[in-house]
Each structure stands twice: as C-alpha cells, then as structure tokens.
Q: What sequence folds into this?
C-alpha cells in the first residue's frame, strides 16, 4: 500500500515538473562556449581589463588576435569600401585574424550610447552590422547592445553577453561584473599614477597592483588627444608616444585624467559632452589646458573620422583663445613615417624655442648697457642721412 | 547627462534669450533644404513675423560655406552655414533650425554654427528645436518664442497651409518623376511643375491650399504621355539633405528623367513631417521607417543613426517589388551612409539588384557623374528589355 502511494506521488511530481526537467536536460546537452575571441581593436584598448576580468570569472577563456601588422590592415582593406576609416578597417582585419586562428565565437559589442543622449559614432554603433554583411565565413557573433538612451543599460549589456555564452546564473554574472570593475579600476588607478599603458594593462590582467610615486620630470610636456584605439596601437600611431619621449617630451594622455576631472573641465570651458568617446579627446585636452600643465596639444585622428573633426575644431577654438600651440596629425593606411617624424620634430623645436623665450622674458639676464646704445645711435644717424 | 538635467537646460534655453531681441524687430531666416521654405514660410508669416529668404544654393554659397567651416565636416553643414551668413547679411537676426541628437554629426550643427558665426562678429539669436521626444510641443514652443503669437487660429492656419503646401508640392514632384520620361512633347512636365511651384508659393488662404493637391493631379493628367513606352524604374536612396536639395545632387532626377528613366524617391519632406510631428498613436498605416525595419531584418538588427536603416530596408523592398535599379547618393564622409555602403554589396548580390554609388562633394565634376549614370542606365535598360522579351516568349 505504502509502496503504491509512493510511486503514484513520484509520477505526479514528475508530470507536474515536465517543463523543468526538459529545461534541465536541454541545459546538460547545451554546449557552453569555452573560448571567446576578442579583436585587438576599438574598445579593446580602453575596456580590456574589464573584459578580461568578466570572462575569466565566468570560466571562459579569452583569446586575443595578434598585434596590428601591415598584413592585418591589408586584410581589412580587402573587405571594406575605401571611404571607411582606418580603425574600422583594422577591426575587420583583426576579426579575420581570429577566424584564421580557428576561433568561431567572437565578441563584437555594439556600444550605441553611454549616457542619455550621448551617442557613439555610427560606425562603432554598427560594428556587428558591418561584420555580418562583410565577412562571408560562418561564425558565431556575440553582439550585445549598450544603449542608455533607449533604456538598455549596463547590466542588461552583460546579461545579454552571458546569455549568448550559455550562462544564465545571475549571481555568477554579478560576481563577474564586480571582478571586471575591480580590474578596470585598478588599471585606471595605475595609469593615473603615471605608469605607462602597456605595463598597467599587464598588471591589471595579472592582478598586480602597484603605484608609482616618483614622476619623471622633462623640460617640455604635451597632451595627446586621441582615441585609445588610435594612440595605443603601435602600428596605427607609429609609436608616437615613444618618439616624443625620445625627444625629451613628457606625454600625457586621457588615461592620466580621472573621469570626473575630465567632465568637470569640459563643462568649465563651456562645452557639453555629445559623443560617447568624447572624454578621450576634449576632456583630457580641456583638463590640461585649464591646468596649464602642458606646453602644447597634439591631436591624432584617423582620416575621415567624423566626430574627431568636430572635437578637434572645438579644442582648436579654445586653444587659440589661450594661445596654446596645437598640432593636428592625420593618419590613414598610407601614412609615411618620414613625413610624420618631420612634423613632430618641427613642433617640438617650436615648443622648445617658445619655452626658452618665455624663461628669458621672466628672468631677464642683465646685459652690458653700452652696446645697444651705440647701435641705436648708428641707426638713427643713418636714417637721418 | 541625466534626463532631469536635460529638462532644466531646456527650460533655461528659452529663458536666457528673453530680452535679447524684441519680438517686433525679429527677422526670421532658416537654412534651405529642398522645398522646405514653402511650408516654413507659410507658417512663420501667418504667425506674423518678418522673413528673409537666403538666396538659392549656388556655387557662390558653397564657396562661402567652405571658406568658413573646417575641413572634415560634411557638405550639408557647409551649405547651411553659407545660408546663415547670407541671410544675416540680408538683415535677418533670428535663425531657426531643428536638430536630432543621436543621429550623427547633424546633432552638432547648430552648436558649431553658433560658435563660428559669433567668431565672425554677427549678432543673432538662434532657436533650436530638438527632434527627439515630444516633438510637437518643442516646435510649438519654439515658434511661440519667436513670434509671441497667442491667437490659436493663426497657429491652425499656419500649420494647415504649411502641411497642405508640402503635400501639394511633393505630389507635383512625384507626378513630375512619372511624367517626365513618358511625355510626348519634351519639357512639358517641367513647365507644368514650375507653374505649380509658383501657384503653391503664392496661395495664402486655408481653403485654397486644401484644394491644391487635387488641382495638381488634374493638371498633370492633361499632359499627353506615351503609355506603351518601356520605362525602367530606379529608386533614389541615400542621405536626407542630399536627396532633397537639387543643387547638391546636381539635379540627378532631371538627368535620369531625360534619359528615359522613372525615378522613385522614398524620402519626401511631407512624409517625414507627417511622421515626425504626429504622435505615434495617430499613425494610420505602417510608417516608412517601420517598413524599413521589417525588410532590413536579415541584414541589420539595430538602428545606427542617420538614414542607414532606411537605405538598406528600401533596397530590399525595391528588389522584392520589381524595381530595376538603385542609385545611392551620399555626401563625402557621411558616417551612417558609409555603413550602408559597406552593407549594400551583399544586398545587391543576394537580392539580384544593380546598385550605383555616387559620393557627392564640393569638388565633384558633373560630367564624370553623368557618364557613370549613363552607363548605369544602359545596364538597367538592357536588363529590363531582356525581362520583357522573356515575358513575351512565355
């Protein structure tokens, strides 16, 4: 009697729970993605610590594409229309590189807006659309959307990502997001203390935290306003930072400024944020312009970049008012290194001369009085005749 | 920026300029875009403000624009800036402009233009209305700010005549595209259009304006046409301003019409007005944008600003509705259209529809473009003839 009852009870529970059981069986058979490829372009350069922290905590292995080479740029060129800007061509090249490595799951986020009415460039917003239509090979694209204007917030973005990876455990995802933030905050704190980009990135990934207390002092300092993906890519920027440091110039970038400072200084010069990546350029430049910590501004932008053309014009307007020299460098896939170097050298020479002149004006050296008097007399006598 | 902050800024925007220029002294001007001045003129003049019309876009205007703007900016901005400058020199002191944040560089136009014009030493007041949310309220507010008109009948009159004029002129244009390749006496359709343009511009009463559309249709029907002629149909797609402005697109519709091609344009000013100013509850049919989202589904999953989604969606729609070819025009370095340009080759391959890309710039030569258009028309024509032959043989 007891036995019968027990079996009946068992049957009933199973029947009522059919849906859950089917789901459990599905989840067992569902292949969790174990490897994810991240192209070394666009959002990699500023957000990679976060990506790394997030994916490793989820238990997904991250595979990066190779560093940018001429071959990668050529590959990207092959697939796209000639009007497209260089960073996008490089991005496509990196995706091709990942596919050649045999990785079929590639992380291509579409970052539409990072705040209310703060939108990104159309090409970055449409990255997954471009890749989907341009590359014919079969592969799985993980394409979450971040759009704060249309209420697709930060957490939704990461839930989408995890869901397409086959992970639905919310606690784990929240833990992963926290790990991501930790890595990112460490990275930002390290760069703000003056550690160079490469070492800070390595440290953040390996979980090391160190701060630099001693600052290198150089006679001249310069702020470079450029997107991370242009500046820190050694092939695209043609090693601009190292070249400037060889000329004894201290370089500041947007990573040296905290987010609050850059927003505040942007408001202080009377501008508002319109582009999502704007703080990389105008924020950093405005901060150092108000500080008067630097002697000049170098703007580095890709040819045909829409947002940059506006932002550089904005800063140019304010720099002229203050009287700060500014150099605008344009890059594309054909940029010759020789011409690039000549322009930087000329700019550096100009800065040095200006600095020297200013120093002489502020601390005038006493000269002998006789010589200039004689000169004046000579000149006046000549003119009379 | 937060929503609350935005609201505060919006409130301030009108408050700051209250005492800048007296309402009596206001002379209003706005940049040119196709036939926008017909309806804008009707609205502003019925509210009782003086108007200064900037002269037609010409090479001279373009020169002024290029001289005063930065190198990397797109062509529409250069023409807009030239319009502002020419209007200000003719005595205007209030500039009106709408903007849509989040689309592309377009959201930054007014900000930049204000800065440039102030640097040049002009004194003016610029009224900007955002086309993001609550558009009707924004526009009403802006017009109230300019004219301080309280009489609701004048608003009714202005909007009614403005809308009807836009509908009438766009109908005339549509009929012109249909009649031009088929007409028996060359130039008759063009003359008819020009006649109606003047009539539409000069009518002022509400009742007359409501009749305009019917009269236009009746008049175009009188033109003798050759109905048996084989006429290939071509869609004209691309960026909004370039499509609507005949100077910028080098009168591409006329060139195509004279070559014996029927042009169909999906973007018209009146359609856009209807869509933008109406609250979404009152939409009667599927709007153009919704249709594009539906058709572009295989190629694009999200909107990316500008007219990229419309271009791709319309291309697919055209291929499924027996259109023979597509001409895609855009200004140089237009960001959303470059994305569209990257997507279109795949659409062309999959849907089997020929596409011609034309990039327009201040330095584009007309002759080079005409050669390309002629070659494209030949290709489309041959394809069309072959299809007709196949039909007959079957």
A:
């Amino acid at each position: 009697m007891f036995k019968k009852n027990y079996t009946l009870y068992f049957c009933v529970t199973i029947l009522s729970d059919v849906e859950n059981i089917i789901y459990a069986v599905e989840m067992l058979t569902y292949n969790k993605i174990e490897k994810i490829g991240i192209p070394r372009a666009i959002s990699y350069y500023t957000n990679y610590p976060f990506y790394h922290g997030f994916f490793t905590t989820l238990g997904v292995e991250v595979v990066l594409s190779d560093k940018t080479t001429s071959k990668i740029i050529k590959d990207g060129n092959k697939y796209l229309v000639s009007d497209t800007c260089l960073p996008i061509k490089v991005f496509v090249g990196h995706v091709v590189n990942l596919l050649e490595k045999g990785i079929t799951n590639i992380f291509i986020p579409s970052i539409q807006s990072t705040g209310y009415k703060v939108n990104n460039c159309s090409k970055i917003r449409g990255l997954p659309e471009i890749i989907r239509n341009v590359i014919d090979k079969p592969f799985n694209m993980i394409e979450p959307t971040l759009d704060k204007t249309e209420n697709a917030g930060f957490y939704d973005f990461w839930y989408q990502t995890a869901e397409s990876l086959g992970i639905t455990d919310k606690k784990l995802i929240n833990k992963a997001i926290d790990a991501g933030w930790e890595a990112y905050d460490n990275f930002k704190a390290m760069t703000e203390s003056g550690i160079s980009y490469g070492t800070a990135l390595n440290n953040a990934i390996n979980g090391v935290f160190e701060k630099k207390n001693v600052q290198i002092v150089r006679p001249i300092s310069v702020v470079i306003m450029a997107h991370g993906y242009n500046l820190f890519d050694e092939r695209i920027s043609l090693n601009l930072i190292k070249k400037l440091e060889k000329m004894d110039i201290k370089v500041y970038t947007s990573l040296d400024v905290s987010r609050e400072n850059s927003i505040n200084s942007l408001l202080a010069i009377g501008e508002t944020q319109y582009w999502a990546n704007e703080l990389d350029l105008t924020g950093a430049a405005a901060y150092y312009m108000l500080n008067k910590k630097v002697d000049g501004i170098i703007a580095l932008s890709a040819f045909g970049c829409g947002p940059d053309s506006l932002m550089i014009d904005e800063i140019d307007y304010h720099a002229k008012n203050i009287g700060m020299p500014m150099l605008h460098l344009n890059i594309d896939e054909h940029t010759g290194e020789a011409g690039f170097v000549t322009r930087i050298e000329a700019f550096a020479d100009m800065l040095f001369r200006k600095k020297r002149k200013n120093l002489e004006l502020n601390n005038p050296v006493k000269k002998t009085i006789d010589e200039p008097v004689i000169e004046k007399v000579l000149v006046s006598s000549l003119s009379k005749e | 920026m937060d929503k609350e902050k935005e609201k505060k800024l919006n409130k301030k925007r009108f408050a700051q300029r209250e005492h800048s220029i007296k309402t009596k002294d206001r002379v209003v001007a706005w940049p040119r875009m196709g036939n926008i001045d017909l309806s804008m003129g009707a609205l502003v003049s019925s509210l009782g403000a003086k108007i200064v019309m900037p002269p037609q876009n010409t090479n001279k205007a373009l020169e002024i624009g290029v001289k005063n703007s930065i190198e990397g900016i797109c062509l529409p901005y250069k023409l807009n800036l030239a319009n502002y400058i020419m209007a200000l020199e003719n005595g205007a002191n209030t500039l009106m402009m709408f903007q849509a944040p989040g689309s592309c560089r377009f959201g930054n136009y007014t900000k930049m233009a204000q800065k440039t014009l102030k640097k040049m030493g002009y004194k003016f007041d610029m009224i900007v209305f955002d086309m993001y949310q609550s558009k009707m309220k924004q526009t009403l507010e802006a017009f109230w700010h300019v004219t301080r008109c309280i009489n609701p009948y004048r608003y009714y009159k202005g909007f009614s005549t403005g809308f009807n004029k836009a509908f009438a002129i766009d109908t005339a244009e549509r009929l012109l595209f249909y009649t031009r390749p088929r007409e028996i006496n060359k130039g008759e359709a063009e003359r008819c259009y020009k006649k109606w343009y003047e009539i539409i511009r000069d009518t002022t009463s509400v009742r007359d304006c409501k009749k305009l559309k019917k009269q236009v249709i009746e008049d175009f029907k009188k033109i003798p046409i050759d109905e048996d002629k084989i006429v290939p149909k071509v869609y004209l797609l691309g960026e909004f301003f370039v499509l609507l402005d005949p100077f910028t697109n080098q009168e591409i519709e006329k060139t195509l019409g004279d070559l014996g091609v029927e042009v169909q344009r999906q973007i018209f000013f009146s359609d856009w007005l209807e869509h933008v100013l109406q609250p979404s509850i009152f939409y009667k049919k599927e709007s153009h944008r919704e249709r594009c989202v539906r058709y572009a589904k295989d190629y694009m999953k999200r909107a990316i600003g500008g007219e990229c989604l419309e271009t791709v969606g319309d291309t697919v729609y055209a291929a499924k509705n027996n259109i023979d070819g597509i001409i895609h025009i855009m200004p140089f370095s237009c960001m959303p259209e470059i994305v569209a340009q990257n997507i279109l080759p795949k659409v062309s391959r999959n849907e089997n529809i020929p596409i011609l890309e034309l990039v327009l710039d201040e330095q584009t030569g007309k002759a080079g473009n005409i050669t390309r258009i002629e070659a494209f028309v030949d290709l489309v024509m041959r394809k069309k003839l072959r299809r007709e032959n196949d039909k007959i043989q079957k």
Observations:
- Residues 3-30+49-148 of chain B form one domain.
- Chain B has three domains: 3-30+49-148, 153-228, 230-394.
